[in-house]
Amino acid sequence: MTGDSAIVLGRAGALRQRAGKYLTFKLAAEEYGLEILKVREIIGLMSITAVPRTPQYVRGVINLRGKVISVLDLRQKFDMEGAADTDESCIIVVDVASNGDSVLMGLLVDAVSEVLDISDEEIQDAPEFGTHINTDFILGIGKVKGAVKLLLDIDRVICLEAFQLVDYISEK
Length: 172
Hints:
The chain is mainly beta. It has a single domain (7-171), classed as CATH 2.40.50.180. It has two helices and 13 strands.
């Protein structure tokens, strides 16, 4: 596929349209975007219960209206320097899919920005960094309002480990 193409191969090998609405959020000084159809809700930071023996980026679990949801710290997941939670810190609840299953996961972010409608012409493929760097989790690079936004394929960011974590918590 060329850099001008707004259609990419999805996880199942099917063609996937990238243009559409994205919820944008901040991690450190960078802006990221998630497909709005993956977002179930945005909630303020609440008490998170730590789960022993989980990866460092797993902040823990929350009770969201009677449903236990795992919360991942995206700063930690992306190997960024940690930061204290602020009044703008929030949890984006997303619907993650893998191998035909679906699960709700919480993503701890520094702040939510806005919902943007990003056109085909504003999205480019992720740049190549060499053979040892995997950028499959980047759906594309959005160039909107003079700024660059990394558009994430949240299913690939979270992938199988999310389901293993849910299984681990369910067994306890």
